Amino acid sequence: MSVNESIAPEPILQLGLGFMASKTLLSAVELNIFTVLARGGRDRASIAAEVGLHPRSSADFLDALVSLGLLNRDDEGIYRNSPTAEIFLDRAKPSYVGGILEMANGRLFGFWDNLTDALRTGTQQNEVTHTGAPFFATLSQDPVAWRNFLNGMNGVSTPLAGALASDFDWSGRQHLVDLGGALGAVPAAVLQSHPEMTGTVFELPPVRPVFEEFVARHGLSDRLFFHGGDFFSDPLPPADVYVMGQILHDWNLEQRQFLLRKAYDALPDGGTLIVYDAMIDDDRRHNTYGFMVSLNMLIDTEGGSEYTVADATDWLAEAGFSKVNSRPLIGGYTAIYATK
């Protein structure tokens, strides 16, 4: 067999062993490396002493983070955060997205070991796999896991919140309700740039204590409110804009169509529903991140998956929305603005 020298196994090996780099980052977040270095450059011994690294591991671990572009090291051996890590991985900054990485480390990394079982059986492989108990109800009974989950949802929503706040025309809008909005990253970003507006997060009642901490930290307790309930069984709070971010991918087709119709019925004429998810491109070839999220829904939900932009557009039209416009956001996400 002749060998084509332009074809090499390295991309396959890097992909197959990519969990090593992933876990290196997740452990760095768990060990608080980036928050420690946000206070200033440190040498290896100082970092190791503060975060508890063993002498055998510290050099390779920190230099692996350098090679991954997450840390910089100067000629004197002083480590500092890369510009990206400084913005997004310091727990003290509002731009911190590490919540989703903390959840990945604490929950998802282990569950993905069962992907093959999920592919063969079509059944979820998370905390409730062997109990059959409802996912959210079960998770909310564990305070640490629940807080970890909510912070994770907030972490992945934080950069998307800024994109939505600047992309959508909020002029003339008075009140938005984020349906299943976790801690309220999206309304917080919108309200901070539009002081004339107020907002509500409609969530399961156990979310309230963590939500109130988040809102207080952002100085929005007088403008961003909590409404406890279940969007399948309870009336939706009134609003002129609803947001469903990373919600539809949790549910099966019948449940998605029910939620979209319910939002349509509750909106006033001229009201808007914003849907965003890691939607798969209509050709189903390019949005790798969307496919990975969809496989995660296979592992983590009973009937969820990602879906194409065309799918969502059709569902919104069937629900009654007369004007539907899709726009790419960031990081493989798409937003659809649907007006009644």
What does this structure look like?
It is a single chain. The chain is of the alpha/beta class. It contains 15 helices and 10 strands. It has helices at 10-16, 18-30, 33-37, 44-51, 55-67, 83-88, 98-111, 115-121, 135-139, 143-167, 185-193, 208-217, 253-266, 288-300, 309-319, and strands spanning 42-43, 71-73, 78-81, 175-179, 198-203, 224-228, 241-245, 272-277, 323-328, 334-339. The longest helix is centred in the middle third of the chain and has 25 residues, at 143-167. The mean pLDDT is 92.
Topology:
Layout: H1 10-16, H2 18-30, H3 33-37, E1 42-43, H4 44-51, H5 55-67, E2 71-73, E3 78-81, H6 83-88, H7 98-111, H8 115-121, H9 135-139, H10 143-167, E4 175-179, H11 185-193, E5 198-203, H12 208-217, E6 224-228, E7 241-245, H13 253-266, E8 272-277, H14 288-300, H15 309-319, E9 323-328, E10 334-339
Parallel strand pairs: 4-5, 4-7, 5-6, 7-8
Antiparallel strand pairs: 1-3, 2-3, 8-10, 9-10
